[in-house]
Amino acid sequence: MSDIAAFWLDSLPQLLAGLSISLQVTGAALAIGFPLGLLLALGVQSKVKAVKLPSLCLVEIGRGAPALVVLQFAYFGLPQGGLTLSAFAAAVFALAWNTGAYTSEIIRAGLESVPFGEIEAASAMGMLPRDTLRFVIIPQGLRVAAPALLGFAVAVLQATSLCFAIALPELTSNAYMIGTITFRYMEILSLAGILYAAICVPATIAVGVLEQRLGKHAL
Amino acid sequence: MNHIPDTVNLSRMHPVGEPDKPILRLEAIRKKFGEHVVLDDVNISLKSGEVVAIIGPSGSGKSTLLRCVNMLGPATSGRVVIGDLVIDEAVPPTAQQLTQLRRSVGMVFQSFNLFPHMSVLRNVSLPQERVLGRSRKDANKRSLELLARVGLEDKADQYPARCSGGQQQRIAIARALALEPQIMLFDEPTSALDPELGLEVLAVMQELARSGMTMLVVTHEMNFAETVSDRVIIMADGKIIEEGASREVIRNPTSDRAKRFLKAVKDR
Questions:
Q1: What backbone torsions phi and psi does residue B126 show, to the nearest 5 degrees?
Q2: CB contact under 8 A, A131 and B130
Q3: Cβ contacts of A117 on chain B, cutoff 8 Å
């Protein structure tokens, strides 16, 4: 038992360095992906074809293609077209697209949950559509979408483990590397799992708390 | 001066500046959903300060008519005239026309439609800031005056969910009044409220009527129609079947359809 503890302790710095990269990729992917999701949600609802069709394409490809394929496309495929991305940039590109595509649907559902009567009242008062969107629809829609969005954020952190495939030294890659050297896969992957859970379980609980708080002013 | 029936097109008969010039005219409003005619040649004219109640059975087109006035649901044909603003229902209005129309006409809905994520004060102030361009400070000042007028200044910092239905509707009235409309439309403002809460809303409306606001009120409140409004219009099947002085219309309807409707209401 103390043998495992010593092994874990030895490996921990390298895994924490990996976790740090996983979190950075997650943070960057969400920072780009959530706003992208909002834009795509609005774009898909647009009456202007030149906005609607590209939005729809981005959403459907992002949702239709497995994240691993997009990831490898960004890292191995794009250089052929003249665009070489670092492993980190490719990871952010792929996961941000994936996040944007999936969260656009979550956000769209949130925006559509805002009662039509409120939109009508705003319109009857002479508020411009963009003001209604900004002050009435988006704040309430995002509140409805927030728990699902944060749930998705947890899933994105787990999806960063796919970056193992493009040699990004994130948590899973580092754990695997230690495994290849020590052949103690079981112990090292368990520790990696614990580290993921150490972030994801509290995050999931926080989402639940947030969900209750956000429902406070619901009519 | 000759008496002119209110439903007659007055456009050429009353030159600009005439004191009795109507503030709002609905001319030949028709609306069809496919083959189904919901409004059939409706003409209504309101003088400044006049309170007109529209009553009638469900499905008679009362609310639909109200929504034609501010183009929330444009009619198939007809015109809405407010001062020098002429809206052709059949043609999409320009942005400028629509802004002018919506600023002239305030509306209160059956379901209040407050913004639940904003405090009561924000609910009343935000539209003033965005539509009239008032500063936050001026808007809040005006909001507090109006909330006091509807008896709810102490609710300013609450959220709508913490207010009763009657309070929410009074806030909705304050919110509409804050935009200084010339005309107020009420679409069954008490229908979602229990009778007691309805009374406090009716009291606010009565005060508003006394203060000289021009009001077009779709309602099932016969007492309000009879005692507060100057005129009553009875609609059935998309048409005006009877109209005139409130007491007269409600006490002594002439058409069979109106008699039947009023009997049903009174026998409840």
A1: -55, -50
A2: yes
A3: 109, 111, 113
ipTM: 0.87
Domain extents for chain A? 2-217
Q: What is the mean pLDDT of residues B44-61?
A: 94
The answer to whether the beta carbons of residues B185 and B25 sit under 8 Å apart is: no
Q: Per residue of chain A (219 residues), give pLDDT as tens.
A: 688 999 999 999 999 999 999 999 999 999 999 999 999 999 999 999 999 999 999 999 999 999 999 999 999 999 999 999 999 999 999 999 999 999 999 999 999 999 999 999 999 999 999 999 999 999 999 989 999 999 999 999 999 999 999 989 999 999 999 999 999 999 999 999 999 999 999 998 988 888 888 776 666
The CATH topology of domain A2-217 is: MetI-like fold (1.10.3720)
Q: Which residue of chain A comes nearest to B99, CA vs CA?
A: A126
Cβ atoms of B123 and B160 within 8 Å: the answer is yes
Using an 8 Å Cβ cutoff, are B39 and B30 in contact? Answer: yes
Tell me if chain A has a CB within 8 Å of the CB of B48.
no
Q: What is the CATH number of domain B22-266?
A: 3.40.50.300
As a dihedral over the C-alpha atoms of residue A171, residue A174, residue A175, residue A181, rounded to 10 degrees, the angle is: 180
Chain A residues whose beta carbon lies within 8 Å of the beta carbon of residue B131: 125-127
Three-class secondary structure of residue B82 per DSSP:
strand
- Taking the CA of residue B186 and the nearest CA in chain A, the distance in Å comes to 12
Angle, helix A171-182 to helix A185-214, in steps of 10 degrees: 160
